[in-house]
Specification:
With 70 residues, the chain is mainly beta. It has one domain. The protein has one helix and four strands. A two-stranded antiparallel sheet has the order 1-4. The chain is elongated and about 60 Å long. Bound molecules: zinc ion. Zinc ion (ZN) binds next to helix 1.
């Protein structure tokens, strides 16, 4: 059971909140070299760019849809 912070409605005990990301940042992952058992030379994970969640909120289904739509 949870209370939606946006519309202040208390959800039924069986309803799970929808988590909506409200703030994310760009994250750069560096190249990694590693070996698995039996490897004779390094494998290379090239890394890359992705996003990292900074803050998310738990909303009811209705508010989550509205939040994602905007
Ligand atoms: Zn709501």
């Amino acid at each position: 059971m949870f209370r939606c912070p946006r519309c202040d409605v208390v959800a039924e005990p069986t309803v799970r909140p929808a988590r909506v990301v409200v703030e994310a940042r760009v994250k750069t992952y560096p190249e990694r070299r590693y070996r698995l058992r039996g490897d004779r030379k390094d494998r290379i994970d090239p890394g890359g760019v992705g996003t990292e969640t900074v803050r998310e909120v738990s909303l009811c289904a209705g508010c989550a849809g509205a939040e994602r739509g905007t």
